[in-house]
Amino acid sequence: MAVPATPPSRKVGGRIPAGLLVPAGIGLAFLVLPLAGLLIRAPWSTMAERLAKPGVLTALRLSLQTASIATIVCVLLGVPLAWLLARVDFPGRKLVRALVTVPLVLPPVVGGVALLLAFGRKGLVGSWLDSTFGFTLPFTTTGVVVAEAFVAMPFLVIAVEGALRGADTRYEEAAATLGARRWTAFRRVTLPLVAPGIAAGAVLCWARALGEFGATITFAGNYPGRTQTMPLAVYLALETDFQDSIVLSLILLTVSVGILVSLRDKWLTAP
Amino acid sequence: MTKALLDSHIVVDRGAFRLDLDLTIRAGEVVALLGPNGAGKTTALRALAGLLPVTDGHITLDGQRIDDPHERIFLSPEKRPIGVVFQDYLLFPHLTAEENVAFGPRCRGATRPDAHQTAAQWLRRVDLTDLAHYKPRRLSGGQAQRVALARALAVDPILLLLDEPLAALDARTRLNTRADLHRHLAEHLGATLLVTHDPLDALVLADRLVIIENGHTVQEGDAATITAQPRTDYVARLVGLNLYRGHGTGHTVTLDNTFVFTVADAVDGDVFVAFSPTAVALHTRQPDGSPRNSWPATVTGIQRHGDNLRIQLAGPINVAADITPAAATQLRLAPGEPVWAAIKATETRAYPA
């Protein structure tokens, strides 16, 4: 019996044009080379003792703590905000949406200055907080959380609003016909339906908060153990011990890649 | 006659489209709202459910005004004693079948144990006790439909609304589910409105049919009347009849284009003439003898229709004729071919327009 011949493999579409292939290759190299540099030039032989330096773990712990608290704050405030933008047709909705996205495009340092003007000891709200409660935000760990939440919240709001708009509102109508008031429908139907979107938004928000530099250093300063998060520690190490800054950067890279891997199904799969 | 449980005049004006519908339903009565796509069926259902306010008219349910723009009354959907079975059921995907059914009683103030007891009872009534802990994605179409029905009935609604309850099912499941649904609707003591575009669902499930086209009622009545005496082309197509409108004098009916029918019924004034496609006989030559109505026609289309062929004919009147494939072969029927069509007067029905 004759072995069936495998048909010659053929591709539709012809050769890839060099005008696209060359810039694509350069673009890829541009993105990958710095990361490769980080891995190649890392002081692997002294890695263990550098990681064990007291400042490193403190900065890492502070970073993880503040980013997590900032994310919780963002979820608690951002999800209702996203719901309002997605479900309630109120005058000025477009303006509100634009305002929400401002921190996304604002240079973080400017965000930090703006936070100082609002929550600083002499700021709009800050002076009142200080005189009423004796409570000051700038240059405290809470200030780090505020700076991170300010910068990261738009990511959550946009992700959750997208999820809410994508969710079938007829489920909420079905809940209404069953006697559910809007709050009940939100809690028992909408929220579970958009939970994956909220989770995705929260991770994105957390990653942004973890990497926050500009607003943090402006609003909260750079005090080891109190406001010095990982990115600030990297920056400081650049001026004292370059090898240390590589190690700190590697830690942040590892955390970021970890996030990316955990979300690969959500964002990395092309449609 | 018992008093109407639902008494409504539903007007929804959306500029290009206007729904204007009088709808009353008595206790225990099942009314089917039948019409082509875009006729306003779903709009009417949404207005009754409170998902859409009426722009004019009123909705009164069990003596209580629940929507009346002139009196500034609008009862929001969660406060209306109405249950809805949605077209694709909209079972909450994150809740089990039982939790779905318990959702309504829970929202309407039942304690958690009571709500679950009610849900369990309803699942037993629709024979789904075994699947109570399944999530909707594990249910078949027919099972999901029954859960949706149980969920709507579990709130003990005065008015039950069903939006195309069988449209999402395959033909076989449909048959069984329709029979089950018929039984449950018969047991429902309140009023029931069934929205559908399927005449069979309407004929089997409903006590009375209301047919709407372009937002207006075109015909209303029980199944027998509507199938025997359609009043619009849409209804005639639904029930599978040829329908013409003309002016009757004695046993002749003259259509607007001067075509004359001889009919068995004695009529006077504006009338409809209806007859079945199976009653139309086709001949290669002009027939002589008993059939009193005959006319030359041209074949414009041939489709399968059950075991027969449905022949579309153009001529002085457009008509559909059902003949056997054997007869079609004998007549050498093909699109564009000339043919003589004939119908006996005794096969026609004429009734006042």
Give a structural overview.
The complex is a heterodimer of chains A (271) and B (353). By secondary structure, chain A is mostly helical. Chain A is built from 13 helices and no strands. Chain A has helices spanning 18-40, 47-51, 54-87, 93-105, 108-119, 126-133, 141-166, 170-177, 182-210, 214-219, 230-240, 242-262, 264-268. The longest helix of chain A has 34 residues, at 54-87. The radius of gyration of chain A is 24 Å and the shape is globular. The model of chain A has no long low-confidence stretch (mean pLDDT 88). Chain B has 353 residues and is of the alpha+beta class. Chain B folds into two domains: 4-236, P-loop containing nucleotide triphosphate hydrolases (Rossmann fold, 3-Layer(aba) Sandwich); 240-352, Beta Barrel (OB fold (Dihydrolipoamide Acetyltransferase, E2P)), CATH 2.40.50. Helices cover 26% and strands 38% of the residues of chain B.
End-to-end separation of chain B in angstroms reads: 27 Å
Largest interface, Cβ cutoff 8 Å: A-B, 17 and 23 residues
The whole-angstrom Rg of chain B is 24 Å
Query: Which structural class is indicated by helix and strand composition of chain B?
Result: alpha+beta
Give a quick precis of the structure.
The complex is a heterodimer of chains A (271) and B (353). With 271 residues, chain A is mostly helical.
Chart the SSEs and their pairings.
The complex is a heterodimer of chains A (271) and B (353).
Chain A: H1 18-40, H2 47-51, H3 54-87, H4 93-105, H5 108-119, H6 126-133, H7 141-166, H8 170-177, H9 182-210, H10 214-219, H11 230-240, H12 242-262, H13 264-268
Helix pairs in contact in A: 3-7, 3-9, 4-7, 5-7, 7-9, 8-9, 11-12
Chain B: E1 4-14, E2 17-26, E3 30-34, H1 41-49, E4 56-61, E5 64-68, E6 73-74, E7 82-85, H2 97-107, H3 112-125, H4 141-153, E8 159-163, H5 171-187, E9 191-196, H6 199-205, E10 208-213, E11 216-221, H7 223-228, H8 233-239, E12 242-255, E13 260-275, E14 281-283, E15 293-305, E16 308-314, E17 319-323, H9 325-331, E18 338-343, E19 349-352
Parallel strand pairs in B: 3-9, 3-10, 7-8, 8-9
Antiparallel strand pairs in B: 1-2, 1-4, 4-5, 5-6, 10-11, 12-13, 13-19, 14-18, 15-16, 15-18, 16-17
